[in-house]
Each structure stands twice: as structure tokens, then as C-alpha cells.
Amino acid sequence: MPTRVVIAEDEAIIRLDLKETLEEEGYEIVGETGRGDEAVQMVKDLEPDLAILDIKMPGMDGLTAAREITSDRRAAVLILTAFSQRDLIEQARDAGAMAYLVKPFQRSELVPAVEVALGRFQEIKELHAATSNLEDQLETRKVVERAKGKLMDEHSMPEGDAFTFIQRTAMRERRTMKDVAQQVIDGAVTPPA
User: Fold this and answer.
1) Within this chain, do residues 28 and 68 fall inside the same structural domain, yes or no?
2) Is the separation of the CB atoms in 86 and 18 below 8 Å?
3) For residues 124 and 101, what is the distance between their CA atoms, to the nearest angstrom?
4) pLDDT above 90 covers what percent of the chain?
5) Which domain holds residue 141?
6) What pLDDT, in 10s, does the model give residues 138-183?
7) In this predicted model, what pLDDT tens digit does every residue of 27-80 receive, in sequence order?
8) Mean pLDDT for all residues in the chain
9) Phi/psi zone of residue 137: left (φ > 0), alpha (ψ -120 to 50 degrees), beta?
10) Has residue 193 been placed in a domain?
11) How many domains does the chain fold into?
């Protein structure tokens, strides 16, 4: 599947040049606009892999648009602008941009910038998924430990038996150990007398 791209550039000639260049390189342009606010909406509606944003646009500037797009990891963002001042570069970085390209650009600069942005974005998504998984594992462990403690205190079960009870109940009922442990804590699940 080709990489899907939204282009937000207020200069029509540059937007057309970008579109032609990217299409020749095998990318699929799914949306184009000259406004930042429309770019944000297009990213929400079209779910592209990449949004290329100019900084200075009507409706919403590219940095604000980048912040909105990257806040929920909707797409990689590449800032394409005529401005190379350090403070704008830092603002773009802080807004979540994965790459920054200064106009006028060459084809030999555009494709590497796009690929770097896509690669960095994929790494961030994978790190977020790994972090979420670890957080869930930690939360599960905490709930299971509390449930084991309750079984040990209220039902005089040894720790290993308390764990085995939670585990077997989860397998028998085809539910997660976290769900069963929470029900033990709430008193909805108890071991047989």
C-alpha cells in the first residue's frame, strides 16, 4: 500500500510541485489544502500516514496544526517552510514535527525528509504501544497482589493458592486475571468454602 499524504501549503504552485514530486515517487496524495485548520480536519477524516505542513497558513498556522495532529499520534508531520530561524525549528520540534525542510527544496531532499519523518513516527507509535502495555501489566500486577492479599487475609489461603485460584478462575471463565482479581477485591468472587 502506498504511503498516504496530506499536503497543507498556502502557495498553490508549491502545493502542485509537492504533489507531482511525491506522486512520481510512489506516494498517494489523499488531500490538499492551503489552510491549517482544514489540514487538521483532513488528517482526522482521511487518516494519512504523513501531513506536510507549511508554517504560515490562514485559518491555523502549521505549528498549531502540527500540535493538534501529533497530540493523538494521528500522522507523522513534516514541516515545509521558507523560514529557517532556530526558534521556529525548535517550535516545530516541540509541536511534534518529525522532520523540517526549508523551501526551496530539491527532490533529493524531500524524499529522505519524508522517509525520516515516517520512520521516526513509527518508532514513537511503537514506544507508546510498549509503554501502554507495560502500564497495563503493572496495573494488573497491582490488582492481582491486592486480591491475593484479601484471599490470604480473609480466607487463610497460602499465597501460591491465592494466585492459583485467581489464575484458574480467569482461565475457566475466559476472562483476564485483572478482571477476576478486581471481582475478588469487590467481593463478587470468593473461593469455595
Assistant:
1) yes
2) no
3) 20
4) 65
5) 132-186
6) 999 999 999 999 999 999 999 999 999 999 999 999 999 999 999 9
7) 999 999 999 999 999 999 999 999 999 999 998 999 999 999 998 888 999 998
8) 91
9) alpha
10) no
11) 2
In a domain, 172, yes or no: yes
Q: How many CA atoms lie within 13 A of 176 on its CB side?
A: 10
Handedness of CA 70, 72, 73, 74 (dihedral sign): negative
Helices (H), 156-176: 159-173
**What CA–CA distance (Å, rounded) separates 23 from 27?**
5
pTM, two decimals, is 0.70
Grid cell in block for residue 135: 502500564
What are the grid coordinates assigned to 63, written together? 505549528
- Look up residue 46 and give its three cell numbers: 482521511
19 assigned to some structural domain: yes
**Which residue, 81, 117, 113, 115, is CA-closest to 97?**
117
Contacts with 46 (C-beta within 8 Å, 6 or more apart), sequence order: 4, 6, 30, 31
Task: Say whether both 87 and 174 belong to one domain.
Answer: no
Q: Would you state the cell numbers that stand for residue 147, as one nine-digit string?
A: 486480591
Regarding whether 101 and 33 lie in a shared domain, the answer is yes
Regarding whether 139 and 93 lie in a shared domain, the answer is no
pLDDT band with cut points at 50, 70 and 90 for residue 22 = very high
Q: What is the dihedral angle through the alpha carbons of 150, 151, 153, 155, rounded to the nearest 10 degrees?
A: 140
Beta bridge partners of 102: 81
